[in-house]
Amino acid sequence: MILRDADASDRLGRALAKRVRPGDVIALSGPLGAGKTSIARGVLAGLGLAGEAPSPSFAIVQPYDPPEVALPVLHIDLYRIEHPDEAEELGLDEQRGDSLLLVEWPERLGADAWRDALWLTLETKPEGGRGLTARVPEAWRARWPLT
């Protein structure tokens, strides 16, 4: 899939918001500037967040709760995590049960983290826009592709 501009990333996020459930993980992978936060912001807007969501780069975890959004969301940026053990202190697996996890830089936890996540990998295209590749687990098969 090609996301031609920031509006396309926002639309994808909003479309995802219509299909998410508590306990879901959406892993957003790609280099700096690839559009991970744009998709996450689209999801949050689609769940009712008014205004622009800050990037959780420094906080690592930015929580959102109803009535601000339709369901609890943890927007997570693992860029500053240097070793998977550091993420254990965040207690993400414990909080996942009733929350949606939007995880930027999920590869910091290794390939085995969240095998049931919808894994979206973005790449910057030389001609402009972003290429998006989706790894769709069984839990997402009935909800993907977004049409």
UniProtKB/TrEMBL annotation:
Family affiliation: Belongs to the TsaE family.
Superkingdom: Bacteria
Subcellular location(s) of the protein: Cytoplasm
UniProt keywords, alphabetically: ATP-binding, Cytoplasm, Magnesium, Metal-binding, Nucleotide-binding, tRNA processing
Transmembrane helix as UniProt keyword: no
Keyword Iron-sulfur on entry: no
Signal sequence, start to end: none
SUPFAM superfamilies: P-loop containing nucleoside triphosphate hydrolases
Organism this protein belongs to: Sphingomonas japonica
The protein, known as: tRNA threonylcarbamoyladenosine biosynthesis protein TsaE
